[in-house]
Design goal:
By secondary structure, this protein is mainly α. α2 packs across α3 and α3 crosses α5. This is Cytochrome b561 bacterial/Ni-hydrogenase domain-containing protein.
């Protein structure tokens, strides 16, 4: 049987990506990138276990001798400063997540993510799972949904860790929450890498204009 090939619903006079969504997207990109960079600095570039001996070597060449504990004090200063940045960016991400909910409610019709997901699901049912475009579109929408859920988990666990020292009940689950937070961070990192690769691939092949759409708004939004 030949799969049905009905097109998407009629379009509206609205752009596919609202101004609120575009501003949120780029702000979220900056904040998440900053969060990942702080982790990169802490655990790779200035890893505390290796930077301490390097401090000692540099100081020794200047004729200054520091004990291991004194060097640890220096590395803690660096570590705490980067963690302060991480916490500040985490608070910003919390605000952005709340803003994303506001943007979703404030958008109209086909600009809403829920409508875009509904349109993708309907086209997938109409055209069948064997049609690559409809399958790809639906998978992309579900990947965005998964990303939003990752952000919720990151923000929730991050807030727990932020107040764990002040609230006994939170302190008792701090270790487990930290593991969930770290694991989710790797998921966000994997999504970010996959998203960038996907956008580059699309821009170089048949789906050009994705970046431009997120800057200028793109074509008209579709009705559910």
């Amino acid at each position: 049987m030949t799969p049905q090939t009905e097109q998407a619903g009629p379009t509206t006079g609205l752009k596919r990506n609202s101004l609120g969504l575009r501003l949120w997207h780029w702000a979220n990109t900056a904040v998440v990138s900053g969060l990942l960079l702080t982790i990169l600095f802490l655990f790779v570039i200035v890893k505390m276990k290796t930077v301490g001996p390097e401090f000692q070597k540099v100081l020794a060449t200047e004729g200054v001798t520091f004990s291991r504990e004194q060097v640890r004090g220096l590395t803690r200063i660096v570590s705490h400063r980067i963690w302060d940045w991480h916490i500040g960016l985490g608070v910003a991400l919390t605000a952005l997540l709340a803003l994303r909910v506001v943007v979703e409610v404030a958008q109209k019709g086909g600009q809403r993510f829920s409508v875009k997901l509904a349109v993708a699901r309907r086209i997938f049912r109409q055209r069948g799972p064997d049609l690559q475009d409809s399958r790809h579109s639906l998978l992309v929408k579900y990947s965005y949904l998964a990303y939003y859920l990752m952000l919720v988990v990151m923000v929730a666990t991050g807030l727990v860790l932020l107040y764990a020292d002040d609230v006994e009940a939170l302190h008792q689950i701090e270790h487990t929450v930290e593991e969930v937070h770290n694991f989710t961070m790797y998921l966000v990192l994997a999504f970010t890498a996959a998203h960038l690769l996907g956008v580059v691939y699309a821009e170089l092949t048949k789906n050009r204009g994705i970046v431009s759409d997120m800057i200028h708004g793109g074509g008209p939004a579709e009705q559910a």
